Amino acid sequence: MRRTPTKVLGLALVTAALVLLSACAPTNDPGVASATPTAIASQTPTGASAASSPEECDGVDLIADAKVTGEALSACVIAFSRAAGSGHLHLQSADLTGEADFIFGDAPATSGSITGSDGTHDFVLTPTESWVSFDGTWVRANATSSDYRAVIVSTIGQTYRAFADPTASAALLAAAPGWTVQPDQDAVSLPDGAEVRAWRVRADGPFSASGVEVKDMTVWLGAGHRVVAIQQTGAFGGIETTTMQQFTAWGEPVKIEVPKG
Known about the structure:
15 strands; 13-stranded antiparallel β-sheet
């Protein structure tokens, strides 16, 4: 009997969350399956300092009880991410954990792994390609393939590109009824062992945008409006989950291996 990898389907939601900060235009998925990683896509980002704040963040006052509009928070988060150019993500939900390196810019890309009850799946997503590993074999996106795995990978790639569109990223944060900086700062322990002080900026209520129904969302911002973490409870494509994302290594160079036949 064919085993349907439900946790890989969940990866579509995970990648939607992962690219919340990124910027690229949607493109079409290409098509064939199974290969070995050989080519490498790399980028040396601009490397924004963790202490520097983009001018787009002028409308986000990090003081207790400050009110922030969705448009201002969206502009700030996206501007910081673009200025940094790259980073690392650690993701945790009830039944999934994940790690990913990511690149922002004219050709955004991400690679990493997701681990759930059905095992670990590696993934590589670029503006033109989508790959996911199944039992150690890379499968390339193909929406019309008879291989159900290639169809799943195509869905993941389409989700990635839809949410990597800057207008979708901006719409998700901007759609909240408003945001409020919570009292006091939190000491946030990050996966790399660092501990940073960050302000909790919480959505004032539930909202929806770009097909996502968000029940609750909090963004942690540190010195220089550094994006430290994002937690959201929401549903996309009928899948509801609470996801915590923690960001490290902002501005460090990233290399992404792209599977090629």
